[in-house]
Amino acid sequence: MDCIFCKIANHEIPSTIVYEDDKVVAFDDLNPQAPVHTLVIPKEHYENIIDGVPGDVLEAMTHAIGEVAKIKGLDKGFRVIANTGAAAGQTVMHFHMHVLGGKDLGEGLI
Fold it and tell me: Pick the catalytic residue: 37, 45, 94, 96?
């Protein structure tokens, strides 16, 4: 498979790793949309959030999001986004969650 996120998860492509455990890896986005923009991905390949992601992997991702928030100092709040499909803005077809923060993001979603 030629998936860039699989390659990052397997340490085949260098990335700024923020957090990692046996199920997930979190790394800084190369095109940040906020002062803090970290992606949390499962190490196994799933196309999106509705691609049969096991509960233990979703739990590991939730835990990783909390760890990223602590590591990045997002104690005043942050946003988590999972785009599903190209029409929603998903550009890499490997399930991932964006952790955004480091400034007041306001109430608007787009």
Answer: 96
